[in-house]
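ugh ok fine here u go
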Amino acid sequence: MKIAVSELIVRFMERLGIAHVFGMPGAHILPVYDCLYDSRIKSVLVKHEQGAAFMASGYARVTGGVAACITTAGPGATNLVTGIASAYADRQPILIITGETPTYIFGKGGLQESSGEGGTIDQTALFKGITRYHKVIERTDYLAQVLNQAARILLAANSGPVLLSFPYNIQKEMVEADLLDNINFSAARRAAASRVASKLLSPTDELAQLIAAARHPVIVAGYGCIRSGAQQAVAELSDRLGIPVATSLKGKGVIGEDGELSLGCLGVTSNGQAYRYIVDHADLVIFLGAGFNERTSHMWDAKLLADKQVAQVDNDPAQLEKVFRADLAIHADIHEVLHGVLEYVEQHGANRKNLDNLARLRQMTGATADTATGSGDSGKQFPLIEHFFKQLAAHFAQDVQIFDDNIIFAQHFLKILPGNHYFPNSGISSLGHAIPAAIGGRFAVSANGNPTSPTFAILGDGGFQMCCMELMTAVNYAIPINAVVLNNASMGLIRKNQQQLYGGRLIDCDFVNPDYQLLAQSFGINHWKVDCVADVDALFARADLAGSINLIEIMLDKNVLPSYLSGR
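structure:
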């Protein structure tokens, strides 16, 4: 039996397990949209294609599966660029379907043409550096190979965005329906263990012996632990041997940050406890799926790893020894390695580590940190933010989703508990991400999870004005989210840098905000303004934070700045 390529595309998405596709229709992609009409896949109309990419990103972060977005040719595709670049940096499996002008007018200046012919936009070149695979399908005789390659990449352990562009006339061509039966839709097998070290021991045994021999080991757990589903194994190893755990920004929540063995987040804008403990006391640092990027490494401060042994486990070989030399580097699935280490400890035994240094550090600092980070007094500087995050943790112990563009305050104040989920805007750190990503994440929860759990999007007022129109997408689909806007009428980090590094020569960092109460009213959503600590308490006492759409405005003084130095 033969079916149109447009229907085959929809069936391909169904086989990938895609339940929602985010996008905006246009003339050149309408054949696919027409087939979506009868599909179990739900299409979501966004307000801007960039929002579609960010929603797909949020959906992928929550489900751990393949997400999708769809646009028309030309500007529909070009508007995706920032969101797809962010997904590429985060290695997120996102399928992008775009339309294109018919092949028979390539090079003739067709409306919105992006074939690259005749001086038109070259979409292939545009997306080459931000996708793992990109193809304009001009014929159907190799369509099976293209779809097989796309599925292989999307389902790989280290995935990334895949963009398939279908000219209008190709979408209408007929192909055999059983073409998809030859596509491999199985997830790729996990990486087999390898090592860079001794040839006499298995990698897991070698890591276990390093841990057993160390007096003060520290685990630095990154997002790779979450991708691997290794949270419980990290917590078990930490508890069994008394090993403190710090996390990267994306790894927040690998272990409960309220536990006695949690050092919190390791990062230049965190409270500094993890940094101080590692520098002063650690003799072995174990990186588990953590890339040691600029934030985590305190801008690659040499003191963090000086005079220490370093072990690294990652399922992405490109991450191994990327920025430091490791005594032991293991290319493997983190969950499987930790399971092997725990088995070794069970069979051979290992002494529990002495935590006196950690106890003394906490007595001296009160769990707030070292002035080298410049953030030790942030609780006094930003009492509303601190109290907001404390109340958030106190009121929602399970299943809360937090999509965060601001990062700095959450890294310092927010304690993620087991069962909660923190999704920072890492990637390329683009403004305008949090609200659409939270909407995408909330679609995933509404379809598969606990409908009573709240979703928060935290962002500054500058970023809010880049994406606030997507709140109407939430309104259109009755998707409850809480948009938390930090209102200081400025681009806060730019103002900070200009104040601290450029002699106070302020330029293009301050602006006038709209009246957010009237804006919320025009959207038909709730508005809450936080001017004092009592307003925070009232918010959590009275607002429906799980079942309605709320615009929460937290007022900040633009002249009170975090004092850490970014060096730029």
